[in-house]
Predict the structure.
Amino acid sequence: MLKIGIFGVGHLGKFHINNWKEIPNVEIVGFYDPNDKTANEIVASYGITRFTSVEELLQVIDAADIVAPTDHHFLLCEKAIKSGKHVFVEKPLANTMEEANNLVNLVRESNIKLQVGHVERFNPAFLVLKNIPLNPMFIEVHRLAEFKPRGTEVSVILDLMIHDIDIILSIVKSDVKNIDASGIAVMTTTPDIANVRIEFNNGCVANLTSSRISMKKMRKIRLFQKDTYIGLDFLDKKTEIIRLKTDESIVKDSFSFEIETSTGNKSIEIFHPQISETNALKMELEEFKNAIEKNTRTIVSEIDGLMAMEVAHQILDKINNAVVTR
């Protein structure tokens, strides 16, 4: 039985509670949250024990699930790791690069598992590409959200775009060569909308747009690689693949047609892989549990979290420098 303690039971914390309750061989021992109103609601709704001390809760658990605001991630993670507890922490890994590097060093010196909550890695629209070779040379991303006060303690880069940064880094097996970025603060004191161009050493280019002041929601990634286009809709959980048809690429239920090119007729096939109904949050928590029980690497490790943060902070530096020179 894995004993879990939850640190932070606000909006997202409630989702974590609901999903942990559905995972076998897990006991939610208790939670820590300094907000009395929120804490009382959780006790009344779930009957889970409230701890008023971080240290007391850490003493009686195997793993800490940290769903607190980003500026509390480092302190809570540090205390948990030094107590020998496994850690699941929501993205981003930490608030600053110094904090993130310190956490990576702490994990390296310990015998614990740490997983960062980049939940889009478990989105069924992305999971369906598991057995499809990915070598994109151009990536286009749009992640748009309606404005909500929650989460605005960090910029749109660390709030929304970091999801796509993590996805891209997991696909493009190359170091970043150059970053160009622009962003504007509209509703808060940090960028609320941003456009970023990332160039990789292997020639791949990624163009990302993120906004948290949009009138509509959108979470789409388009991948362009030799002979293949892949469209991912993370919001509606749909995947479309268009590619040149070969004898090896014939897929059941695909639609194909001929086009005339300068090098002769080409056969194009279009298909939509069947997407399984998947609870991404539950799956990532289950994978965290499995990594602890099987002593395997977490799917989104502290190193993955650090790499995403490095790119995110390079983007923020570019935006801040642009503002200064205007």
Summary: Residues 122-275+312-325 form a domain with the Dihydrodipicolinate Reductase; domain 2 fold (CATH 3.30.360.10). Residues 302-325 form the longest helix (24 residues).
